[in-house]
UniProtKB/TrEMBL annotation:
Residues 72-146, 200-266 form the Cupin type-2 domain. This is (S)-ureidoglycine aminohydrolase. Pfam families: Cupin_2. The lineage of its organism: Bacteria, Bacillati, Actinomycetota, Actinomycetes, Micrococcales. Residues 159-178 are annotated as: Disordered. The keyword Lipoprotein does not apply. GO terms for molecular function: ureidoglycine aminohydrolase activity. Signal peptide: none annotated. The keyword Hydrolase applies. It comes from Kocuria marina subsp. indica. Keywords: Hydrolase. Its EC number is 3.5.3.26.
C-alpha cells in the first residue's frame, strides 16, 4: 500500500518545523480527533486483512465511552479480507466514503449474497454473520467500520443483515426546522432488535441544535462534509470534514452550522436496552 495521509496535506510524516498546537483534545466527557492526526505514523493493522490499514478512532474505555469501537479503514486495490471479524458477538456497520467495497454476506465462505457498496453505501452486519470484504476496484477504498458487542435479550430476535445506500433513504427533518436539520435513518427507531443506531445528521447553513442535549447514549461523530461549531460539555469547538468527536454518556452537546456548505456527520449511538446495573458490564455479555 502506498504511504499516504488520509485528509492531511503535509505528507505522511509531519516535518520537524510543525507547531505542536492543534485542535486535538481529550477531556473527561469528550474527545476531538482532528483529521490532521490521521497520519501514517499512527496506523494500525489487523489479522487476516490484506493491503489494509486503519486508524482506530474509538475503543471501549473504562470510565469513558464503553459500548463501541470505530475505525477509519483504507483498503488498497486488491486488498480486503476473507475473515474480517474474529468476535462472534460483534455486530457492525460499514459506511463507504471513497472507492467501492465488495461485501459478501452469507452462512458459509464463498456462499452468500454479494453487494458492491459505492460512496454512501451502508451495510449492517448482524452478530455471528459470516462476511467478507474486498476492494475489487482500481483506487483506494475508504470506509467507516463501527463495531459493538450485541446485547441479546430473551424473546427478542437478533436483527438481520442488510445493505443500502444513503441516496435511497429520504432524510427525516426535525420538527420546526424547515428542513435545516434532518436525519437519514437506516433503521426504524422502534425496531427493538437493534441495540445501536448509525445515522447521518445533516445541517444546512444556519441550522442549529438550539439546546444542549444531554442523554444516556454514547456517541461517535465522524464529519463527512462541511464545518461547524460544536458545543461539547462547556466548550465550543470548531470541527470540519474528516474530524471525529467521541462523547461519553450525558455529555452536553449542541451545534451551529455557519456555512457555507451543509454540515453532515455519521452518528453512532447505543439504544433500546436497559442500563447495566454492574459497572463496566452490559446485558448479554
Amino acid at each position: 500500500m502506498t504511504e499516504r495521509t488520509y485528509w492531511a496535506t503535509h505528507g505522511g510524516h509531519p516535518p520537524q518545523t510543525d507547531l505542536l498546537t492543534d485542535r486535538a483534545m481529550f477531556r473527561e466527557a469528550y474527545a476531538v480527533i482532528p483529521r490532521g492526526t490521521q497520519r501514517d505514523i499512527v496506523t494500525s493493522y489487523l489479522p487476516f486483512w490484506e493491503d489494509t490499514r486503519l486508524w482506530v478512532l474509538a475503543r471501549p474505555m473504562t470510565g469513558f465511552a464503553e459500548t463501541f469501537s470505530q475505525y477509519l479503514v483504507e483498503v488498497a486495490p486488491g486488498g480486503g479480507s476473507e475473515k474480517p471479524e474474529d468476535d462472534p458477538s460483534a455486530e457492525a456497520v460499514l459506511f463507504v466514503m471513497e472507492g467501492s467495497l465488495e461485501v459478501t454476506l452469507g452462512d458459509e465462505p464463498g456462499d452468500g449474497d454479494t453487494h458492491v457498496l459505492a460512496p454512501g453505501g451502508y451495510a449492517f452486519i448482524a452478530p455471528g454473520e459470516t462476511w467478507t470484504a474486498h476492494n475489487r476496484g482500481s483506487e483506494d477504498t475508504r470506509f467507516m467500520w463501527i463495531r459493538k458487542r450485541y446485547q441479546r435479550v430473551a424473546g427478542v430476535p437478533k436483527p438481520e443483515p442488510f445493505v443500502t445506500n444513503e441516496q435511497d433513504i429520504e432524510p427525516t427533518p426535525m420538527p420546526g426546522t424547515e428542513g435545516r436539520w434532518a436525519t437519514t435513518r437506516f433503521v426504524d427507531q422502534k425496531d427493538l432488535r437493534h441495540d445501536m443506531h448509525v445515522t447521518i445528521v445533516t445541517f444546512l447553513p444556519g441550522g442549529i441544535i438550539p439546546f444542549a442535549e444531554t442523554h444516556v447514549m454514547e456517541h461517535g461523530l465522524y464529519v463527512l462534509e462541511g464545518q461547524a461549531v460544536y458545543r461539547l460539555n462547556e466548550d465550543w469547538v470548531e470541527v470540519q470534514e474528516g474530524d471525529f468527536m467521541w462523547l461519553r454518556a450525558f455529555c452536553p452537546q449542541a451545534c451551529y452550522d455557519g456555512g457555507p456548505k451543509p454540515f453532515r456527520y455519521l452518528l453512532y449511538k447505543d439504544v433500546n436496552r436497559h442500563a447495566p446495573l454492574s459497572l463496566g458490564g452490559h446485558a448479554g455479555r
